[in-house]
């Protein structure tokens, strides 16, 4: 029985060599690991034993990684880190669009992947710490969040947010009226000192699609040209 002290990770990878290496590194880091070789098997395993996080290859037989990610997102908020064999920006953006929390481009360092897994899970488990340890929720402009339960509601309707979308919304609600650059958001919300800034752009677009009355004309999450974004609750 693998050590599950740090959580349960489902690795979805059809290359047995890559899958084995990833499993070994995650197991050494204290994770229980299940492996699936294709999308259909991954979805069945995730339904039978919900993982804490999924490491998901894009190029899978039968059901590709994007479709698997979409289905996982429909089922619940499990974090997903996607693996892509190409450095194609379109692949990375599509992965984020369908709900991935992070991505790693092949060839990759297994140690880096473990660090990404740890960072995503740590962020997900620190909802109350992100609010200074307070268990008090935030509410404004018809939006309310519970940082402990990690629930977000818009006008009485619960929002289906990914881990990163929730963190981003929580950050905006805690800092109304303040403009932030994408670099600042990546550092404060993602905890990264560097990375692809399109990650922030895509997540802002996805979040607008869930909280704005008209995402094409956002009134809550405003674009500040030459700077980044600002949350304006009074504009709702």
TrEMBL record:
Provide the protein name.
Response regulator transcription factor
Q: Which UniProt keywords apply?
A: DNA-binding, Phosphoprotein, Transcription, Transcription regulation
Q: What residue ranges does this record give for the DNA-binding region?
A: 135-233
* Occurrences of domain OmpR/PhoB-type (ranges): 135-233
Do you know which Pfam families this protein is assigned to?
Response_reg, Trans_reg_C
Instruction: Please give the CDD domains that the UniProt record associates with this protein.
Output: REC_OmpR, trans_reg_C
Native species = Streptomyces meridianus
Response regulatory domain span: 8-121
Q: Which InterPro entries match?
A: CheY-like_superfamily (IPR011006), OmpR/PhoB-type_DNA-bd (IPR001867), Sig_transdc_resp-reg_C-effctor (IPR016032), Sig_transdc_resp-reg_receiver (IPR001789), WalR-like (IPR039420), WH-like_DNA-bd_sf (IPR036388)
4-aspartylphosphate is found on 57
């Amino acid at each position: 029985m693998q050590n599950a002290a740090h959580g349960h990770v489902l690795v979805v990878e059809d290359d047995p060599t890559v899958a084995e290496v990833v499993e070994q590194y995650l197991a050494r880091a204290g994770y229980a690991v299940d492996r699936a070789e294709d999308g259909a098997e991954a979805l069945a395993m995730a339904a039978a034993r919900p993982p804490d996080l999924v490491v998901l290859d894009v190029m899978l037989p039968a059901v590709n990684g994007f479709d698997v990610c979409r289905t996982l997102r429909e089922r619940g908020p499990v974090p997903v880190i996607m693996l892509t064999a190409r450095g194609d920006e379109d692949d990375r953006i599509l992965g984020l669009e369908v709900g991935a929390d992070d991505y790693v481009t092949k060839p990759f360092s297994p140690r880096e992947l473990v660090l990404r897994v740890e960072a995503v899970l740590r962020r997900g488990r620190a909802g109350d710490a992100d609010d200074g340890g307070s268990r008090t929720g935030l509410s404004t402009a018809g939006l309310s969040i519970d940082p402990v339960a990690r629930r977000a509601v818009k006008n009485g309707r619960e929002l289906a947010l990914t881990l990163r979308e929730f963190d981003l919304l929580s950050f905006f609600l805690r800092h109304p009226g303040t403009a932030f650059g994408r670099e600042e958001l990546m550092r404060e919300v993602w905890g990264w000192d560097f990375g692809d800034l399109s990650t922030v752009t895509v997540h802002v677009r996805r979040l607008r699609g869930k909280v704005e009355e008209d995402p094409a004309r956002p009134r809550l999450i405003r674009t500040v040209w030459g700077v980044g974004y600002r949350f304006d609750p009074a504009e709702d």
